[in-house]
Amino acid sequence: MTWVMFITYWSGANHMPDGGDVIVYLLVLPAAFLLLVWGVSKARSALVAAAAAKAAAAAAAPAPTAAPSEPGHPPERRWTLAIVATALRSPFGADASSLLEQIKSQSLRLPLDGELVNDQDMPILAGRIGDLQSEETREIYQTWHQQHFPGQDLMLMGDAHWRSLTLAADIARELGGRLQWHPLLEEYREAARHRQEEVGLPHLHLLVLLPAHWGSETRMQAARWLAEQVCLAGWPAEKLNVLPAAAGENAHPLQHLDRLVATSRDARTQQPSPYLASSYLAMVIAAECNLDPEIVKAWQQDKQLLQGSQNIGKAPAEAAAGLILADATQALAMGTADPVLLHRASVGRHEQSVDQARRVSGELLIQLAQAALRDAAIAPDQLALLVSDGDYRASRTDEIMKLGYAALPELDLGSQCVKLGATCGSAGQATALSALVLAHTATSESGEPTLCVCNEDAHRRAVVALSLAPVIAAGAAPVSDPAASSTSTASHAPASATV
Prior knowledge:
alpha/beta, two-stranded antiparallel sheet
């Protein structure tokens, strides 16, 4: 191509090249151009290699501080995933760090909502997020639905439905933008179609948690639309799959996350932890709006609504949260210098609703917290913060107090306990996932482990620990990690209990 350009130029200019012209323009310049292309390619490969260098060293030398498995303790309970990024939408903003500090300082108060009233037509306290473009979301979604499901009518959906979907879309777009940091994404885009699989870009598993009272088909269709928002942000559609759990069982959000950890690797494969031998990438989104007159009415009938001078109920709210989870190798390559690890969750259930019980035992929550700490190999006195999705109801406060006294005696519940539901209101699954985002923020900023405790639900309970990934010194001698290298084929079910 260079030769053609110069020969054409000489011909048009009536210039007869001499020997020097031939050497410079037909030999030296083309060679320099090829060297430049080669140099750029090598520099780009070096950047990707440098991003994963720390992970490569860690893969060769597992954490020397990894605790060995206890007799009878399933080794896969030591498995983790790294949190690459988080996103949050709350009545008090989208900055998780700022929200955490304001809750700690007890400077936040829910305002009276002019659109929601109790049975005496008095406004109630509620957590509303301002400036939501729910009408725009409605128009976009309806157009999309007509294109993909022609002839199928949308179910009757109120304003709370569209506000939930708007919040979920905001999270999907933000996290979709964060995926652009993946070091293999550009190479995948530029590769010929028949060579793209050789690049090694992993599939993205998308889990969407929407209000339980939506029908399963409605939830699945919404999840597919949210997947399209992620792809519009730049992720290849053929590299994304929507997990059917989005429309299936209404399990607790932390139980869904635990299943992601459990299925991220094969128990029969010997590999160091938390550095997986194969790539794993997932995105989790939860969004819910309880700013609905029917929900307010039902809560008031059940005597669960926070109103008047009685500081013992829950306030309706809306929220959304999301996380990107990956193996620790990818987390490092995507620019997460000190990844926070999500450990295995312990989940359980009260057979009787705690809202109806005359006295709530703290035994279930104590057992779950002890199991979560054991799985994470974290001593209770190492915890710097407890984050709960609980609210002002006495039963929830009583459970947390009993947990603190029995299992976390070193933790000052006055200054080292954050109750998100009490501050920002109740938004169901979104509040639970938001509590996890705050716990991630606390660990990321302080470097110390945190415990996320979910006890807002009337029956379900869940606890999970978060900690920084171990720092591996270059050239460290490999150590055996029985928790990671076992060939056990035990069940991947999370630790659970029932009371």
